[in-house]
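Minutes, project check-in

Agenda point 3 was the complex the collaborators sent over. CS summarized: two entities, 502 residues total, and the question is how they sit relative to each other. Sequences were read into the notes so everyone works from the same version.
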Amino acid sequence: MIKIVIIGAGNVAQHLLSAFFESKIVVVKQIFSRTPKTILNVKTIRINNFETIENADLYIISVSDDAIEAILTQLPFKNRLVVTTSAVFDPKGVAQNNRIGTFYPLQSFSKNKEIDFSSIPICIEAQDQEDIDLLQTVAQTISKTVCKLTLLQRKNLHLAAVFANNFVNLMYQISHDICQSNQLPFALLQPLILETAQKVAQISPQAAQTGPAKRQDMSTIEAHQKLIDDPTYQKIYALLTQTIIANANKL
Amino acid sequence: MIKIVIIGAGNVAQHLLSAFFESKIVVVKQIFSRTPKTILNVKTIRINNFETIENADLYIISVSDDAIEAILTQLPFKNRLVVTTSAVFDPKGVAQNNRIGTFYPLQSFSKNKEIDFSSIPICIEAQDQEDIDLLQTVAQTISKTVCKLTLLQRKNLHLAAVFANNFVNLMYQISHDICQSNQLPFALLQPLILETAQKVAQISPQAAQTGPAKRQDMSTIEAHQKLIDDPTYQKIYALLTQTIIANANKL
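CS then shared the predicted structure for the full assembly.
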């Protein structure tokens, strides 16, 4: 069995713990967490003191980015494989007693929302081939998609995820606001939202683009601009419309 | 049987024709189309001359917005129920020999992509109660969700759809570009894209927001801004990040 210790008890740490529970080749021996509320399973013991940390094949640090460095300096051992689940953490310049790597699951985790881990891509990074092989084995026990990325690729993947998740969600929120101001149920848009998301699995976003900006339908664009009250939303509408028009003209 | 004539042969017209085919209470007698490529079924005859248009209970005009007025003036009859599938068409000021209404399916239709019409909301509008009832009956034969909207509501719903569909798709495209520039398969983002879309069916977009802007994680935001080459994408990143930060501070 590959022995793992998880450090942290946030959403990612808890989802990882659940995902590893079923594995026949990986066992999470300990989870380091300061809160007694951590949800455990029969295989895992909670610790809240680094003195009691066990010998393991892999340590997964899953804490907020700005807490990683402090954790790394507190680890009471050397030359072991320690990975973070961070999208952006760069170990360069940080005191390293251990072999630092990455184990980054590309998903936005919410508390209390079950997730099928097998569909979540896991991005791994390590210096030595042996460590890469171990991370690959561990990642494959919980996910169908494992990819080895460089730091620069991982940072760019995170940036791409900000557009595809955080900014998309902001678009949903503006849409929600417009519905609310006009006594329209936001649920009316659900089928469209889902279809839009599913479509880019089949055709490129460039080919999937439709709407007044794509058609350069200026009368509808002007009518829309008159409907929007919020000055920030007006700015967003104008900038995104201009961008779609410019993209269409490039083709 | 309720007799319908469809005028137009674009994506919406073709999808409507297919959707009505199974109905036991609605029959599409004719489709007006100038192109012989129109896909027909055994119940429907193609016409390309308004002289041969039959007597029907409902005429559905499904053409581009700027062609609607010309069609309306060519119709060789009076006082019949004529609806458009347009999101934004306003019959005010247009010469009206007939009873003009709306039959607007809220979806982005692509050619060659099957669609389950039953999940697509249909927005209806008409002056007389009798006409509203007929549109409701017709819409219900193909969709589970039918709603009566005013012109202003319909225009705002279309605006909300531009954010939730066209602008969301632009975010996918930028994400796709970033992946491509960094030798990352865009498919890695598919599970995140789908999860983001599905989440807002369960919790509000406001509650679903995550990411560096929401956390006001300025060091990640600055790092992202350095990664982006395209000046337009930089502008979009800055504006949307500022908006999410401002929203978070409002709470």
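Noted in discussion: Chain B touches chain A through 91 residues (CB under 8 Å).
Follow-up: revisit at the next meeting once the mutant set is ready.
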